[in-house]
Structure formats: structure tokens, C-alpha cells
Design goal:
The chain is an alpha/beta fold. Helices cover about 35% and strands about 20% of the residues. The protein has a single domain, classed as Protein of unknown function UPF0759 (TIM Barrel, Alpha-Beta Barrel), CATH 3.20.20. The chain has an eight-stranded parallel beta barrel.
């Protein structure tokens, strides 16, 4: 089993990051897709063996009313004409996916994370739309990881059913809920956000929690595991977890 440890976003300079880790989950691709030339440059900068993951563009997941679009560079009138978001099988969403896939291929992204907003609840309509959309898109060699949130976590059987039918890796924080499916390529993908209020991201994992995470990882029967920290202290937590896992 190969274990990849990294952060969701550049938590330090690229030179230092490449020295520390062998994977990253790009966050900028969620807010605004780069030009293909930029994505190709990213690929040329990667060290041998480095695994690039990326968050899918919000065009396929978040409707134009979402505040996340403020960082998109698109003006409100432009967005009002678009049927974006919520994994609906609309022409705009299919176009948004093609743009996302093109950037991922240009950058050499291996795994693309689909994170839906809280408004994407486990309703019959959303389940139907999700199936209609994800069953028709062209993936190429991309692995898709889906992170259901909120009310979805109360229905693990539905998560497992959808992941199996649509060949999705269940992206989850295993300290909150167990993974339900690893996809055809036998991959576990963990996104570690932290706990607490008002902001769960402003969190530092304890040694006990990281040791528990190491036990979970060591007990998996998969080909690969990604442990991606997505909290304020992600750089330090990822380094600490590396040390703990090496001793497990």
C-alpha cells in the first residue's frame, strides 16, 4: 500500500513543499480555472513521482447564487444566464466539466475531487441529477473522488450505493465517518478539515488523533491512500503525521 500525505493548497513555498511531500490537492481550480498554458507550466514544475490532485471547478457543483463565485472573476450578469451547479445534467454543467477535465489533463492531475455545497442534500432530485450527470461525462484517466457532506453522512448506504454505481472514491475525514467505497482503482482519499466551532478549519490535530488516523490507514486493504490536510495548521499537522505513520 502506498500512502500519500499532503495539504489542500500550497502551505509553504513550492520548493519547500516538494521537499516535504509527494502530493497536493490544488484549491485554486475550484474558484477559477487557469489557462491551459498555465496548467501545462504547473505540470512541467512537478518533481518525478509527485501526484497532483485538484478540486473540481465550482461550475459543476455550486449554483451561481453561491458566495464562492465572488472569486471566479465572472460578473453577476454573466452567471445569471448560466445553469451551473448541483451536478445537474445541463448543457452548462457539461461544458463546465469539459473545461475542468481539459485543465486537469494539461496539468497532469490524477485525481479530481468533487465537493458539493451544503444545499446539495440527499434528495431524490439530487440523486437522480447526480447519476445522470456523472454517468455521461468523459473522464479519461481521471479518478473522481466525491465528498458528500452534511445530511449525506447520516446515510452511508446511499453514499456507498452511488459511489459503486458511478465509480467514485468516497472522500471523507475518517475521524468523522468511515469510508464507504474505494473505487475500481482501490484508492482511499481522506480530507482532514479539523473539528470545532465557529471555524473547524482553525484546528490543530492532537497526537492522539494523528495516531488514531495512522491506525486507520494501517488497517486499510487498498492500493493507495491519500491523507490531505485542509486546516489552518495543515503544514505542521501533515509533517507530524508523516513522523507518526513512519513509526506505526
Amino acid at each position: 500500500m502506498q500512502v500519500h500525505i499532503g495539504c489542500c493548497g500550497w502551505s509553504t513555498s513550492k520548493t519547500n513543499y516538494f521537499r516535504l511531500f509527494n502530493t497536493i490537492e490544488l484549491q485554486s481550480t475550484f474558484y477559477k480555472l487557469p489557462r491551459l498554458e498555465t496548467a501545462q507550466r504547473w505540470r512541467s514544475e512537478l518533481p518525478d513521482g509527485f501526484v497532483l490532485c485538484a478540486k473540481a471547478w465550482q461550475g459543476i457543483t455550486h449554483p451561481p447564487t453561491s458566495p464562492t463565485w465572488r472569486r471566479s472573476g465572472l460578473k453577476p450578469p454573466e452567471l445569471q444566464r448560466k445553469a451551473y451547479g448541483l451536478l445537474r445534467p445541463t448543457q452548462d454543467n457539461f461544458g463546465a466539466w469539459e473545461l475542468t477535465r481539459a485543465v486537469c489533463e494539461a496539468a497532469g492531475v490524477r485525481l479530481c475531487v468533487i465537493q458539493c455545497p451544503p444545499s446539495f442534500k440527499p434528495t431524490k432530485e439530487h440523486v437522480s441529477n447526480m447519476g445522470a450527470f456523472l454517468s455521461k461525462i468523459e473522464r479519461g484517466d481521471l479518478v473522481l473522488a466525491w465528498e458528500p457532506r452534511g445530511e449525506w453522512l447520516q446515510n452511508p448506504d446511499l453514499i456507498k450505493k452511488l459511489c459503486k454505481r458511478l465509480d467514485l472514491v468516497h472522500a471523507v475525514d475518517p475521524l468523522r465517518a468511515p469510508p464507504q467505497h474505494f473505487g475500481k482503482r482501490s484508492i482511499a482519499y481522506f480530507r482532514l478539515h479539523g473539528f470545532g466551532k465557529p471555524s473547524m478549519y482553525n484546528y490543530k490535530y492532537s497526537a492522539t488523533e494523528l495516531k488514531h488516523l495512522a491506525q486507520i490507514v494501517s488497517g486499510l486493504k487498498v492500493r493507495e491512500v491519500f491523507c490531505m490536510f485542509n486546516n489552518v495548521h495543515m503544514l505542521d499537522d501533515a509533517k507530524r503525521f508523516q513522523r507518526i505513520l513512519s513509526k506505526a
